[in-house]
UniProtKB/TrEMBL annotation:
One of its GO terms (molecular function) is NADH dehydrogenase activity. It is found in: Mitochondrion membrane. Its main location: mitochondrion. The keyword Lipid metabolism does not apply. The keyword Ribonucleoprotein does not apply. InterPro entries: NADH_UbQ_OxRdtase, ND/Mrp_TM. It catalyses: a ubiquinone + NADH + 5 H(+)(in) = a ubiquinol + NAD(+) + 4 H(+)(out). The chain crosses the membrane at residues 6-27, 34-53, 59-80, 92-111, 143-164. It comes from the Eukaryota. This is NADH-ubiquinone oxidoreductase chain 4. Core subunit of the mitochondrial membrane respiratory chain NADH dehydrogenase (Complex I) that is believed to belong to the minimal assembly required for catalysis. Complex I functions in the transfer of electrons from NADH to the respiratory chain. The immediate electron acceptor for the enzyme is believed to be ubiquinone. Core subunit of the mitochondrial membrane respiratory chain NADH dehydrogenase (Complex I) which catalyzes electron transfer from NADH through the respiratory chain, using ubiquinone as an electron acceptor. Essential for the catalytic activity and assembly of complex I. Residues 7-153 form the NADH:quinone oxidoreductase/Mrp antiporter transmembrane domain.
Length: 207
């Protein structure tokens, strides 16, 4: 039976509602790590809905997005920690303009945020497309919720990048320690698999 039992309808509705709610919470966050954490909850709403629908496409998409988001979210937390170690604050209003101090780290921020909003050629896009197609096939109106979720995700991802990297650096940060090779290696090992797995997504899709 390709359709979930009626008992599962409320859970799917809650998962879809959760996508919108947690994405919206991200738009008003002042704490960098809280923003990333709520972003994870939002993506897991997609995964939960896809698993409950119980179709091959849904399970493939859920598996792919879980692996993709595991790497993406980990990279975002790693980046947030590099900021925290130097500035000792997680408040977005204070941690701004860091592109001037750490231009290479700013590149990692941009790439990771684009990955978080499912930029091709990462497997995040593959996972989200599978899940959105599955939910659309199950019930057409879900495209409104998943579409809005994708739009809000793009908004808060760009908001996070602009708040932390652009603008003038706060005057309280006079001497910031430079970034280390281990930090750049760490982020390379997060983002490289996300870009390369699209060549053989069967490795993570559970097919």
């Amino acid at each position: 039976n390709p359709h979930p039992p009626n008992l599962m309808f409320p859970i799917i509705i809650l998962a879809l509602w959760g996508i919108l709610m947690t994405s919206s919470i991200c738009l008003r966050q002042t704490d960098l790590k809280a923003l990333i954490a709520y972003s994870s909850v939002s993506h897991m709403g997609l995964v939960a809905a896809a698993i409950i629908v119980q179709t091959p496409w849904g399970l493939t998409g859920a598996m792919t997005l879980m692996v993709a988001h595991g790497l993406t979210s980990s990279a975002l937390f790693a980046l947030a920690n590099t900021n925290y170690e130097r500035t000792h604050t997680r408040t977005l209003l204070l941690v701004r303009g860091l592109q001037l101090a750490f231009p290479l780290m700013s590149t990692w921020w941009l790439l990771t945020n684009l990955t978080n909003m499912a930029m091709p050629p990462t497997i995040n896009l593959l996972g989200e497309l599978f899940i959105i197609s599955t939910l659309f096939n199950w019930s057409t109106p879900t495209i409104i919720i998943t579409g809005m979720g994708t739009l809000i995700t793009a908004t808060y991802s760009l908001y996070m990048f602009l708040m932390t990297q652009r603008g003038s650096i706060s005057t309280q940060f006079q001497l910031l320690p430079p970034t280390h090779t281990r930090e750049h290696l760490n982020l390379t090992l997060h983002l490289l698999p996300l870009g390369l797995l699209i060549m053989k997504p069967a490795l993570v899709s559970g097919l």
